[in-house]
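Annotators were shown the component list below and the corresponding predicted structure, then asked to write short factual statements about the assembly.
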Amino acid sequence: MSTTLPPDLRHWLEHTTGDLPDDLREAVCDEIITHYWFALDDALRAGKTSEQAHLAAMIALGDPSASRRMMQMTYRATHRYLRAAMVALVTPLIYGLVWVGDSALDGWWLFTSDLVIMVTLVVMLIHLKVMMSNLFSFEDITREARWTTIAYVCSALFTAFWLILLNRYGTFGMNRATVRVLWIITLSGQVAIGGTSIWLGLRTLRLRKRLSAAVALASGHILVGSLFIIGAGINLFFRNFTLYRQLEIATEGIFMLVFAFWAVVFMQALRQSKFSFS
Amino acid sequence: MNFRGSLPLMVLYVLSKGSNHGYRIAQHIESESDGFFNVKAGTLYPTLHSLEKQGVIDSYKDVENGREVRYYRLTSDGKKQLDTSLTEWDGHVSAVNRVLRSLK
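Structure shown to annotators:
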């Protein structure tokens, strides 16, 4: 940036482009400085004093806060996509660690995994909304993703509630009716997660013309959703823990793939959103 | 008035008349709209760079009044997109007008 710039122009540029990468910042600043000089020349030609001309040229640049927001949205998208890709990889990483460590599947693990999935879904949803404007149109799945997230939140909260009850009273402290109610709520949670995941998958499938990874993502969500519902069925009719456990491992495996695919989608977006100036 | 959604279309249209740099593009939009649209640099350049990234415009450097300036021009993809966007825009405006008139 030239040192001969008027102080308020320098301040405007620092405020709006301050956190852009150096090469990008330089290119953007060069154009805006040229814009300022043209506006200044026009104002001086129109008979304004140098002070009035400077003011007119500054007005031509626009509100610094709005300009900063616009620049963040346009040039800083890569950072958001990278963050989203990293967050999407948290779920497979956590499942992977549990598998490697051969951890027992206890209640607190269920609670943690529900929370992790919920947080990753929320973060991804926020990033999809940003992506909507310049790469893909994800508005079709916002509602489904929101309900899937709500299903996870409710399930996680209920798991926590049940675990607290169990820790405090133990199963013997509860009467059969209470246990039955808690069990029915758990099954409902599973069906809700399963149903919303299938719904999300079916809607994602509709994006296949726009998003190359849509079919893989959709298949993953539909499979995960189906396994949740099958799991609820096994719980309800067969009470076969071994079969249920195998199903749970399969669900976790598919979850790992689904979230890894989300990471691929964000990396794809990151690649497409990179700016370069010749 | 928020016109950010229509800004890329106006930019493409201005560039269909010939290559130009950011300041003149903003001037053109302002004068053709009788001052209704006052495009600020902080909005214009991110829009121009987004359009360039999409491949609908490209840029080159030239000198005007002793200053090095980046000029923008429409690509062949840009011409196609402009035609499509103009058709969509006409359809959108006439549909909205029909609805508004029917309410009078």
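Statements collected:
1. Chain A touches chain B through 30 residues (CB under 8 Å).
2. Chain A is about 80% helix and 0% strand.
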